[in-house]
Every structure is written in structure tokens, then in C-alpha cells.
């Protein structure tokens, strides 16, 4: 089994999202923190890149929404910290 570069990027994205989720669940990372939002944003972006190899509309919609929600969360947390 060989992996193309976009498969590696997608796998790294999956690890970012799962790692952030696990860290948040065990209390090692705050769900409203920048690190959590960035891991989710870049993880979802990595999964979107992986769709270059085999497109799936459901995954595209899910990960696009994940990027948008993560970007909003990052913006919101920066806005709240600026107060």
C-alpha cells in the first residue's frame, strides 16, 4: 500500500483533530483555547486536501463546516481576550 502526499496530509489532519478532541476530553486542553481551534482548523484543512485523491461530497461539506466553525471560534476567542 502506498500513500500519496495528500493522503499523508489527510492522515496528519485526522491526528490533529483526534488529538485535540482527546486532549480536551481528558482536561489537557481548553475547548475555547487558540490551540484547540487551530488544531481543528488545520486538521480539517488537511482532510480537505486529502480529498484531491478521492472526492467525497459528504466529507467535503463536513470538513468545510469544521474549518469555518474553527475559524469563527478562533476569531471569537481572540476578540474576547482583547477585552
Features:
CBU_0592-like, Permease, transmembrane helix, 3 helices, mainly alpha, transmembrane, 76% helix, 83 residues, membrane
Count structural domains. 1
Distance between the termini: 52 Å
- Contiguous low-pLDDT stretches (5 residues minimum) are none
* Rounded Rg: 14 Å
Instruction: Please write the string of helix (H) and strand (E) elements.
Output: HHH
Organism: Lysobacter dokdonensis DS-58
Transmembrane segments: 6-23, 57-75
Domain CBU-0592-like: 6-79
Protein name: Permease
Report what the structure shows.
The protein has one domain. It has 83 residues and is an all-alpha fold. The chain has helices spanning 5-25, 34-50, 57-81. Helix 1 runs antiparallel to helix 2 (34-50) and helix 2 (34-50) runs antiparallel to helix 3 (57-81). Helix content is 76%, strand content 0%. It is built from 3 helices and no strands.
What is the strand and helix layout of this fold?
Elements: H1 5-25, H2 34-50, H3 57-81
Helix pairs in contact: 1-2, 2-3
Domain CBU-0592-like: 6-79
Pfam families: CBU_0592
Transmembrane segments: 6-23, 57-75
Q: Quick gist of this model?
A:
With 83 residues, the protein is mainly α.
